[in-house]
Amino acid sequence: MIVWVKEHLYLLYSGVLLVFIVNYFISNVYMEYAIGVAAIVLLILSYPGASTLFRTLGIIFSVSGVVFYSYSGLPFYKIPTLMTSTMPLLAFLTVLPFMTSVVHAGRFDRRINQLSNVNVNDLGRLYPRSSFTAYMLTLFINLSALSISQEVLKSNLRAVKKRVRDSFISNATLRAFACAQAWSPMEIIVAITIDSIGINFFVILPWLFLCSVIVICGDWLFGRKKFKSVPYNVGKSGAKTLKTKKILFDILKLLSALMVFLVVVVMMGNYFHLNFILSVTLVLIPFTFIWALLLKRLRTFWIIGWRTWKANTNKLQNFMVLFLSLALFSNSLSETTFSQLVQRPFLAFTDKPLVILIFIQLLFLFMGIVGIHAIVTMGVLVEVLQPLSGIISPLSMGIVLISGAMATATVGPYGVTVTMTSMNTLQNPYRISVRNMPFAIFYCGIGLIIGGLLL
């Protein structure tokens, strides 16, 4: 029975989340309570399969949530009503694999990766090409872009010394990932921020894109200078036969598809009065279906999509434990006066908003280094910073929150991205973190400058 449940978690997860979305529109009180009870069951079932870090966080948030709830004096039978506020995030995570699947089905990832080897004589010239490739793939296939880009680079850089190869791969791919995710509608940090501060995505998009471009271009200049003395000969023979115009056209098609997707998401959200996360969740599957149909790759899309969706949804234990326990914690905290105590350090600097923005950036970096996921830090901060919404510009707040959170993707030794890179390249995760710390500080600094100018 236990084995069956473990292999079919995707049915339990998707079933409960589907009922939650349906109830979002019909607002049935009894169904809402039943979903809350189901959330508690999912939390318990997911706990054994979660990693040690997320189990620890789940226990801390759950126990703290129960303590805060007890202090509030509310009856315990109402606890299930506090468990569903983060379900839109979980539903969002379950549909993301379909975007990855349509990109794989259209073979965009393979063709874009070929671009990096064209007319390259040294690693200095290869660096921005490799970074750009990872950047473009990240916009659509998220974490899969890291694995694909790193495997390609490992193969192409076999003849390069391991120390140089490791530095090149971890810098080019992780930094590109962090920059691309800053304005990607498929990034959960971006979605949480937009819904939390209540800002239109198209209002903050140009500034997030500007921050992303400044940071990635600065890194390209640094990378080109750092690696220009290392010769590169692998892959040159095949570069002449590549159809560069075809690859560039594919990139243009990807960007066009992304913009159409954004427009549809915002239009649907405005028309039906939905938050950004739910809008993306509802639009993504039909959008990718139509895209695959236009590409004439529908059958391949469904084969890849079903396999990818099932595998990814079956491995959502970490996020189930994190978000369901975080919902209990944050909602219980808001029912007590303890939230006011946490807010006091921020409220003490209401006349110095720039100090608050700096503190936010430093908090993200510190929490990332000690192993706390940026989503956890974000979840706590959005609750604490709510009273400041009338003091600090939501635009500034959003830019600083997103840039600070995404910078930790390059320096968190226990984070998914650094851990994945460590495993793929056989590097010490702390070495990767130390190597990327100057970049993370630079990233936070650019976000702080842009946010500060918009106060």
From TrEMBL:
Its recorded name reads Uncharacterized protein
What are the entry keywords? Membrane, Transmembrane, Transmembrane helix
Bilayer-crossing residues are: 7-26, 33-50, 56-77, 89-106, 132-153, 200-222, 247-268, 274-295, 354-382, 394-416, 436-454
| Entry keyword annotation includes Transmembrane helix | yes
